[in-house]
Structure formats: C-alpha cells, structure tokens
Amino acid sequence: MKAYLWFSRTAVLFLSVSFIATTALASQITITGTADKGYSQDENFSISGPGLTLISYAVDGPSEVSLSSCSSIGIIVCGLVIRASQGPQEPGNFGGSLNGIGADFLIGSLIFSLAPGFPMTPIPIGSSASGPVSVTGDIIGVNLIPPFNTLGPPLFEVLINGTGTLTENDFLGCALAPCTSLSPNSAFLGFNFTFTGTATPTPEPANLILLGTGMLGLGVIGLKRRAKPLK
C-alpha cells in the first residue's frame, strides 16, 4: 500500500512539473506586425499578439535605402535587416512586454527575405512595387540601469517567424550604372512591411529553475525510497 501511495504521489508531481514546464517553454503567440526602413525614420517595427507587445521606433534615420545586400541570380534574395533600438542613448520610443513582464529597451533584429514570386520586372524611377517576403528575428527585452542607462539582464526573449508583404516605395535610381530597380545598388525612398506569424518565447531562467527543482525533488524522493525498502 505504501509503495502504491509513493508511486502515485511521485507520478502526480512529475506530471505537474512536466506540464508547467512544457507549457512555459513551448507556447507560441500569434502575431501581426509592421516595419519601416528609410523615410528619414531609421528602422522601425511594431509587433503585437496576445500578451505580447514590441515597439522599436528611432528618429533621424537614413533618407533612402538600397538593395545592396541583394542578389538577383535567378530570383532576388535579400536580407533586409530591421534592427531594434541601436543604443540606450538613441532618441525614440522602445520597449515592450511579454505576459506582463515589461522591458524599457529591445535588442535584436528582424530579417526580411524576398520570397519567390516577388516582381522581377524593373519599374520606372518614381514608381513602387510590392511582393511577398518572409521574416525571422530574435528580440530580447531588457531594462536600462541608471545612471548611465547600461543594459540590464534579459527579461524575455522571443523568436519571430512569419510571412507578409514588402512595398518598395519611390525608386530613386542607382549610384552605379547600369541601373534598374532590380540592380543590387538600386535605391528607394523607403520600404514598408506588413506581416503575420508566430512569436515563440525562449526558456526563461525561472522556468528552467522550476523544472530543475521539480526533477531534483523527484530524485531526492527516489533516493529516500531506495534507502528505506518498501514494506
């Protein structure tokens, strides 16, 4: 009887710890987002979903942006990077929260890649084009520690995956010839992105401690039972 009770209690404890840890580590959040690059507004993004808000808005950015990181062999492949706030001293609006945990500041980046099917036909100067993109990213929330606004320890971290649409606005031309809107050195007034996808929180220290404590407790119980034979 004692052996049965010990087994039942151990099983309940193990299942409870496993359920809580699995729920904390494996949850995904459905998100919607927007991002901009250029327009003298630097690199901005806003992402929201149930329990999640991420905002990074900086001022005084580049007046134009280019596809200098693109390759047009077969299809256009770009790594257009939208970085989170660049430094604690940079003016702007940054921060966010995850499940009630707030952060003053965000670090990390979103990377947008042009997907197959993006328009391959050059457009005239002054025109715009749009097409599908995919987005990935890793965003970390921290607080700023006074008096020098140094970065504090990570409060949360989310991995972003999604798809959406890129609009290239107002083709300006190129610094080098030959020049079309598909040239690697072509310049645009700015890029707009809209996207949907998922944000996956990474394991937080508290969750790992919870899991480790539960497993340690199970181990201690097991050692005690082995040291005292069941009757």
Write a brief structural summary.
With 231 residues, this protein is α+β, with helices and mostly antiparallel strands. The chain is 21% helix and 45% strand.
Please tag this protein with its features:
231 residues, alpha+beta, single chain, 2 helices, globular
How is this structure best described in words?
With 231 residues, this protein is of the alpha+beta class. It has helices at 2-26, 205-227, and strands at 29-38, 43-49, 52-58, 65-66, 80-83, 92-98, 101-103, 105-114, 129-142, 144-145, 150-151, 156-174, 186-201. The strands form two sheets. Strands 1, 2, 3, 4, 5, 6, 7, 8, 9, 12 and 13 form an eleven-stranded antiparallel beta sheet that branches. It is globular, with a radius of gyration of 25 Å.
Secondary structure blueprint with pairings:
Layout (H helix, E strand, L loop, with lengths): L1 H25 L2 E10 L4 E7 L2 E7 L6 E2 L13 E4 L8 E7 L2 E3 L1 E10 L14 E14 L1 E2 L4 E2 L4 E19 L11 E16 L3 H23 L4
Antiparallel strand pairs: 1-2, 1-13, 2-3, 3-6, 4-13, 5-8, 6-7, 8-9, 9-12, 10-11, 12-13
